């Protein structure tokens, strides 16, 4: 009987007092075949957690009368664990193949490649959950072959990608945005961090990236109105009083009151948006239903990335919008929700080899918010002002600070650079309402010398 392996294993834990065996071989509740075994497992784990040791034979038999205690089991923990997990894997696979989710996935789908990928993902999940791992890690002998293989893939551009930022000076400093890395954006509230991220997304889409955006604070229309301002600014759709290229004013798009002179032309550009962007935007925004519904859990993000492995970039704005962590704070500590979110997001970005981008608000003292005359001077927030948790600082490969004012100025800086670049600051021209955020053009005359 397959259930016997579970009874044997638990009996040996009780006899030997080796609670660590359950951890060493990754034994979980779902690996046991009967409810009685699962309840016995729960009891043994709970007892060990409370008392620092396994229960005695007498206690185990009294508390778990529906399982068979088998004395003096001589089989090894590793062998029993393999047998237990092998049976669990078979049941797990059968259950997945007979589920409604499986039937729904196959219903009306003609693409055999996509179906095969789905089957592969199921198989991989079952394998990972039910494999007994022996090695703690790889030795240099193992690693050197992996390293050479990865180097060759990177040389050919097949293992990872580098995406350029919108600013050439920033690209020269950091190289670009690398798959598998995380980039944080932080600024005071209302200073344009979300707008700056949209400028980055615009540039990524122009390069052909497939970008998943979770906008927890902005509705679809507002988010797109900003993107279209940025897009039309790049196209030089309008000119300001100085003759500078600008985009359609965001306020006009939001109110639905575009100037009659260019309304038709603007809507025509929007209609051809797919030709303008070689990449793909997948937007989930606040308040949406149906296909654009905003899925608010980290587990759902994990599933989405598994279902769409072609996604290159994931944007989370802001990072504290995940409902399965925030509002629950399972570890009951100050900043605990942010800590959990940061660590899980870091894992997902690495596992799925995507560029991760998140936004977080900067905590700034009231006395720092303006100059004495009430005007706002550009002042990039420092890393110690990252709101909610320092874990958000720790997981970032690069932490960008951002600030802008109403005088047409902005700046982006590097507050943390895992590979250098810290203290780098770049001044920008900022007219966010008309989609402009760019480096100032430097004319040759600025470098003329008088002799």
The level of helicity is 40-55%
Overall number of structural domains: 2
Annotated CATH homologous superfamily of the largest domain: P-loop containing nucleotide triphosphate hydrolases
DSSP summary, beta strand count: 13
Instruction: Please tell me the CATH architecture of the largest domain by its name.
Output: 3-Layer(aba) Sandwich
The radius of gyration computed from the alpha-carbon positions, rounded to a whole number of angstroms, is 28 Å
Number of helices: 17
- Beta-strand content estimate: 5-15%
Please report the distance between the alpha carbons of the first and last residues: 96 Å
Would you give the CATH topology of the largest domain?
Rossmann fold
**pLDDT below 50 for ≥5 consecutive residues: which ranges?**
329-334, 443-451
H and E string: HHHHHHHHEHEEHEHEEHHHEHEHEHEEEE
Shape: elongated
Class by helix and strand content? alpha/beta
Q: Largest beta sheet: what is the strand line-up? A: 7-4-8-9-3-10-11-12-13
Query: What is the mean pLDDT?
Result: 85
Largest sheet: 9 strands, mixed
CATH level-1 class of the largest domain:
Alpha Beta
Protein name: DNA helicase
Keywords: ATP-binding, Helicase, Hydrolase, Nucleotide-binding
GO molecular function: helicase activity
